[in-house]
């Protein structure tokens, strides 16, 4: 059986259109930008293949030039969308400016040099191979948590397509073995087969990436307070255990501050729950701005917050003062009312069996601050020798 190049490409285009039409139904509306880039990738790839097939039946040289150039432009745009999707899931990817230059240069050079078959074939395929390699590289060394399986599949698929695309470019530019787009040369047929296969493989890989993203968001929702964006009690306890282990391993101090907005029930009763929510958001924002890198801030529930420091009690006092001063300045301006908080502080002891004894002492110191008149910081009693 002899393989027909145009039939293979038509099959690939049909598959891409069907997949691009199905993905919005599978993913739904509330999806990330990365997932939308994937949908755009598939649609643009389908348009690229349809345009290049149609160009073979163009009635005039000018229409052939225009339609073929559109195909090259859609192919480059598809790879750029692919690259943007990976950047959304894995963090900033290398060489975006180079990618943009190549993506613009490919259709422009193709259009201007269309009269030379060797030039246009070599130019378009070599530049397309270059951007495909950039996409392959973009699947490696993530800056955000990501499973290795789907990234390896993207890398292998893109690397294969880059190699075959480069081979087509060299074949058309420097030999007479590829005189026409649909020439049944083994390299050309391998390219068409690989394009068809990699459509399926990449779709699987990107669907897995989208699933991982959705699962990560669910995990984050489970450990994040939706109002303030801070870790909730569960998220705090998970991260606090890691900080405790680090402090034990490196013999570092650890200090906990329990913070409670004063008279918060009155804020809700007198000004409404919307103002109360804004007060919590304001306090959380100031807490995030005041803490240092490495400090852990969380909302444990209601108007109660916690701050865990990789430092001793001497660092907690000025931090409390800065936070208190910022709150006293910001609350009247943003909420139209004064706010203050009570705080209790405790430091890690050698005999603490976990994070809970430390938090219990800080909570007891917070209760002491409240009973002493609120609006102050109290420290737990130091350990007795």
What does this structure look like?
It is a single chain. The protein is α+β, with helices and mostly antiparallel strands and 385 residues long. It has 2 domains: 5-222, Rhopdopsin 7-helix transmembrane proteins (Up-down Bundle), CATH 1.20.1070; 233-379, Alpha-Beta Plaits (2-Layer Sandwich). 68% of the residues lie in helices and 8% in strands. The chain has helices spanning 5-27, 33-55, 61-90, 96-112, 117-138, 148-174, 186-222, 233-250, 264-271, 273-290, 313-335, 355-371, and strands spanning 255-261, 296-301, 304-309, 341-347, 377-379. It has a 5-stranded mixed β-sheet with strand order 2-3-1-4-5, with helices on both faces. Strand 2 and strand 3 (304-309) form a beta hairpin. The mean pLDDT is 91.
Can you tag this structure with a few keywords?
385 residues; alpha+beta; Rhopdopsin 7-helix transmembrane proteins; Alpha-Beta Plaits; five-stranded mixed sheet; 12 helices
Quick structural gist:
With 385 residues, the protein is of the alpha+beta class.
Query: What is the CA-atom radius of gyration, in angstroms?
Result: 30 Å
Major sheet: 5 strands, mixed
Individual helix count: 12
Could you tell me the CATH topology label of the largest domain. Answer: Rhopdopsin 7-helix transmembrane proteins
CATH class of the largest domain: Mainly Alpha
Please state how the strands of the largest beta sheet are arranged side by side. 2-3-1-4-5
CATH architecture of the largest domain: Up-down Bundle
Distance between the termini: 90 Å
Structural class: alpha+beta
SSE pattern, N- to C-terminal: HHHHHHHHEHHEEHEHE
Tell me what portion of residues adopts beta-strand conformation: 5-15%
Number of domains: 2
Mean pLDDT figure: 91
- Spans of at least 5 consecutive residues with low confidence: none
- Morphology call: elongated
Level of helix content?
55-70%
The count of DSSP E runs of length 2 or more, i.e. the number of strands, is 5
């Amino acid at each position: 059986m002899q393989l027909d190049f145009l039939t293979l490409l038509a099959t690939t285009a049909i598959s891409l259109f069907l997949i691009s039409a199905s993905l919005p139904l599978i993913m739904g509306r509330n999806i990330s930008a990365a997932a939308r880039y994937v949908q755009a990738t598939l649609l643009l790839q389908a348009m690229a293949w349809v345009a290049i097939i149609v160009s073979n039946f163009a009635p005039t040289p000018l229409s052939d030039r225009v339609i073929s150039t559109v195909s090259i432009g859609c192919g480059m745009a598809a790879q750029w969308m692919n690259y943007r999707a990976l950047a959304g899931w894995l963090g900033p990817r290398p060489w975006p400016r180079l990618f943009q230059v190549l993506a613009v240069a490919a259709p422009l050079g193709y259009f201007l040099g269309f009269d030379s078959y060797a030039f246009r074939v070599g130019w378009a395929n070599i530049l397309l191979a270059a951007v495909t390699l950039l996409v392959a590289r973009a699947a490696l060394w993530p800056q955000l948590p990501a499973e290795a399986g789907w990234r390896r599949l993207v890398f292998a698929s893109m690397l294969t397509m880059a190699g075959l695309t480069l081979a087509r470019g060299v074949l058309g530019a420097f030999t007479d073995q590829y005189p026409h787009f649909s020439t049944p040369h083994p390299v050309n047929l391998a390219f068409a087969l690989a394009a068809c296969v990699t459509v399926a493989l990449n779709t699987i890989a990107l669907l897995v990436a989208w699933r991982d993203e959705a699962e990560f968001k669910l995990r984050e929702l489970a450990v994040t307070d939706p109002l303030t964006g801070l870790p909730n009690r569960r998220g705090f306890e998970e991260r606090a255990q890691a900080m405790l282990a680090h402090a034990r391993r490196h013999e570092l101090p650890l200090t906990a501050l329990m913070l409670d907005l004063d008279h918060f029930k009155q804020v809700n009763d007198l000004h409404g729950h919307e103002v109360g929510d804004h007060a919590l958001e304001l306090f959380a924002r100031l807490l995030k701005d005041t803490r240092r890198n490495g400090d852990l801030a969380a909302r444990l529930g209601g108007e109660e917050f916690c701050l865990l420091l990789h430092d001793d009690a001497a660092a907690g006092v000025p931090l409390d003062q800065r936070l208190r001063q910022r709150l006293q300045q910001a609350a009247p301006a943003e909420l139209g009312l004064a706010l203050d908080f009570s705080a209790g502080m405790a430091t890690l002891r050698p005999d603490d069996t976990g994070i809970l004894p430390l938090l219990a002492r800080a909570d007891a110191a917070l209760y002491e601050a409240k009973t002493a008149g609120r609006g102050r910081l109290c420290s737990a009693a130091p350990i007795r020798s």
